[in-house]
Each structure stands twice: as C-alpha cells, then as structure tokens.
Amino acid sequence: MLDIHGVSIDRGDKRVIDDITMRLEAGQLVALIGENGAGKSTLLHAFAGDIPYAGTIDLHGRNLSAWRAAQLAGIRAVMEQHAPVAQGMTVLELVMLGRFWAQQTRGEPESVSGDIAKRWLQPLNLTQFAHTHIDQLSGGELQRAHLARCMAQLETNLPGEQLLLADEPTAALDIHHQHLALHQLRAFASAGNLVLTVMHDLNLAMSYADTVVLLKNGQLHGMGKSRDVCTAVALSALYEHPMHVAQHPALSVPMVFAEPKGGAVRQ
C-alpha cells in the first residue's frame, strides 16, 4: 500500500533521513520508535507530503506527488503533534473539519457531516465536550478531539485501503485514554487500513503495533514484529541506555524496562 524507496531528507547541510526503503501493507498498525532526533516525525511529514524529499513514496502504486489534495483527503488523514486550530471553535466543529473534503467534493450536507462527527465523539469519550470551546480543553482532551477529526475524515465508502498518519497520538493522554485511543487505531488497522504512528512509550508500541520500525540517526535499524526486533541488545543500542526485555505477564508480547540512571530509589 505504501512503498518507500531510497528516501532521504536534508535539513540545511544535515541529512536527517538517510536512504530509507520499506514497504508497508494495509491491515496493520506500524509504530516508528527511536530516540529524539532520530527522524521519526520528519519521516511522517514526508509521508504527509509536507516537506521535500529525495527518493520515491508511492501510495496505492501511485507517486505521492501525483495525487490531488482532494483525492488524498478521502484516503489519508494526518494527526499532527501540534495541529493549528482556530480559537473559539467547539469540539464538534473541530471534528466536523474532517468532513470538509466531502462537503466540497461530494456535496455532503452539513447535517450528514455533523452526524458523522457526533458518532466519533462517543468512542473517544468526548460526547460531553461537543459544545465546549477547544480553548477550554486540556491537552489530552484536545488530542482526542484531533483523533476524532481524523477518524471522521476517513469514514467513507470510497474503494481501497486508507492511511492514517499519527505523530505521537498518546503523548498527552492518561493511561485510560492512551488505551482508548490505541484501541480505535488498532480497530481501524484491523479493518484493512494502514496506521503509521510515532510512539515513545515502548510498551504501548509492543502491545498494539503489528510492526515496529527502529530509527536511529535517520537510518533504518530494524523492522518487524516486536518480539523479533525489540531485543534488549537492539533497544539498548537504539537509545544508548541499558534496557531489559521480559514477557508481558498477560499477553504474548515483550515488555521493556529501562535501568534507572544512578540506580533505583530506595523504598
């Protein structure tokens, strides 16, 4: 579904993405992991078409640059870390922005857009905030509203698999809402779509991702199932910090434990 070949990105005189090649199939949630500055968000911005790059990125066998914005809007949504929003807008109005493409290209009535937006408030625990202005939300509540916007955007009967790009979608969320959000992303992927997300919480990545991509200094350092590529040796090298990996007590996935700097606190 998403083919990346020889992608490199320069920022000034520094190469921040160096010759990345990989193929990502629909039906999976893919987590990009790595230390700060590894190139995770930069690579996601390239997939979103926001920044120039060398190499090729093909979506459904077609070069990303050949897609018209109106076409992409129905099959690809982007959840940024810090998406700009107009102050004074309500949560429902923000989520309805995801339907703007359908109103413009398909003549979707505003009432239909509103119904779709309302449907996505409930699974992300936002119904009570429908008419709340976004400047009154916490960071986590706003983050969930942006995820609802993306999910509403991709509710369509268009043929073919869809792509959701999410840059740290759980960064501002508490534990309950982290799992709530990832459950929705997991369900979207399981329905035959592709979710590509940047994640810093390694244990969440292990629990929800079908494929984990290890990035370091803009280079691909590993890709595969977490139990295969997320070894203690690999993760310790990736983060330049001592790591330990054990089996999750309830799931057949690894768990990661980082050694405290200077030793654990005395209890």
Automatic annotation (TrEMBL):
Record keywords, A-Z: ATP-binding, Nucleotide-binding, Translocase, Transport
Organism whose genome encodes this protein: Aliidiomarina maris
Entry-linked PROSITE patterns: ABC_TRANSPORTER_2 (PS50893)
MF-aspect GO terms: ATP binding; ATP hydrolysis activity
Domain of life of the native organism: Bacteria
One Pfam family this sequence matches: ABC_tran
Residues in coiled coil: none
Functional description taken from the UniProt entry: Part of the ABC transporter complex HmuTUV involved in hemin import. Responsible for energy coupling to the transport system.
Protein name: Hemin ABC transporter ATP-binding protein
Domain ABC transporter: 2-242
